[in-house]
Amino acid sequence: MPTGVALRDVREQLFDAAERVLLRDGPSALTSRAVTTEAGCAKGVLHRHFADFDAFLAELVLDRIARIDNQAAALRDSAGTGTVAGHLTGALTDLFGTVAVAIVGLVTFRDDLRARLRKAGPTGVPVLREATAMIASYLDAERELGRIAADADVGTLAPTLIGAGHLLFADRESAPPEAAAVGKVVTTVIAGVVREPPR
């Protein structure tokens, strides 16, 4: 390698480099050359570990989806503590305050990547699909505990929260929304179903 420095955990370093390029310059700037330059390694390093660039991008998306699965477990475990609005506000901020919005843009931007991901999993937009499932699972847990109404339509609430959260964070050029703005959206969406006492 040109720098003479061996890469440890090459996949993760390449994924992190791709994430930085994606966040900084957007999906149109994400090329194998941009990723390897950002990672400080030779272009061949990426191709030694992945069949082609779309295979790399598919693995990147799947890796980031796995992180949502970890977040989902922690969110569900928080049911019954704190406030429902607080947990949902934190979850949306954690989700969309990172690379999730950029990943959605990437999947939308690249037809070949979308086709690969369709073969790897169920229908729907990757990341948003898993995020919706995460919120639905949490709302189910809170419904079981009686902190939201027994007749709450979780199947509608979850995608509504994800869609609203995505829109709040979608503008890459502006500063991310403040917690209060996210909290206001969450509180408005769940106002009719929350059964916990106000704090």
Q: Please give the share of residues in helix.
A: 55-70%
Low-confidence stretches: 1-5
Q: Which radius of gyration do the C-alpha atoms yield?
A: 19 Å
- Overall number of strands: 0
Number of distinct helices: 10
Order of helices and strands: HHHHHHHHHH
Shape: elongated
Structural class: mainly alpha
Beta strand %: under 5%
Main beta sheet: none
User: Average pLDDT across residues?
Assistant: 88
Report, as a whole number of angstroms, the end-to-end distance.
58 Å
Question: Would you mind describing this structure in some detail?
Answer:
This protein has about 200 residues and is mainly α. It is about 65% helix and about 0% strand. The chain has helices at about 10-25, 30-40, 45-50, 55-75, 85-95, 100-110, 110-120, 130-145, 155-170, 180-190. Helix 1 packs across helix 2 (about 30-40) and helix 4 (about 55-75) packs parallel to helix 8. The radius of gyration is 19 Å and the shape is elongated. Mean pLDDT is about 90; it is low at about 1-5.
Keywords:
disordered N terminus; 199 residues; 10 helices; 67% helix; mainly alpha
Question: What is the topology?
Answer:
Elements: H1 10-25, H2 32-39, H3 43-49, H4 53-77, H5 84-96, H6 100-109, H7 111-120, H8 128-144, H9 154-169, H10 179-190
Helix pairs in contact: 1-2, 4-7, 4-8, 5-8, 5-10, 8-9, 9-10
Provide a concise account of the structure shown.
Helix content is 67%, strand content 0%. It has 199 residues and is an all-alpha fold.
